[in-house]
Amino acid sequence: MLGEEGNMLEQLREVAGQPGPAAKLANDMLVFYDEYTSGHLSKEEYEYLLNEIADIRAQQELASDEIALRWVVAAAKGLMSLA
To answer: How many domains does the chain have?
Structure first.
């Protein structure tokens, strides 16, 4: 499981360093992950925020980029599975 977690976080960091709306969402997911693992967010809050990205924000901000949209949704769901 640690390998999956490390790979997902590495991918998110890579995307977060690029320009564009997918980078903003990736950065937000990394912030939420850090806040959750440091105990500042409950599991419920963490999952709510990731679901908001997967179900709402990605749809709004990436409507014209289906590949990025699918990646962001998969990344959000992947991070939830680590909780």
So the answer is: 1
Write out the chain in H/E/C secondary structure: CHHHHHHHHHHHHHHHCCCCHHHHHHHHHHHHHHHHHCCCCCHHHHHHHHHHHHHHHHHHHCCCCHHHHHHHHHHHHHHHHHC
Handedness of CA 65, 11, 44, 32 (dihedral sign): negative
pLDDT in tens, 37-52: 999 999 999 999 999 9
Give the pLDDT score at 46: 96
To which residue do tokens 């990344």 refer? 75
Specify whether the CB–CB gap between 62 and 32 falls below 8 A.
Answer: no
- List the domain range (segments joined by +) for residue 53: 2-82
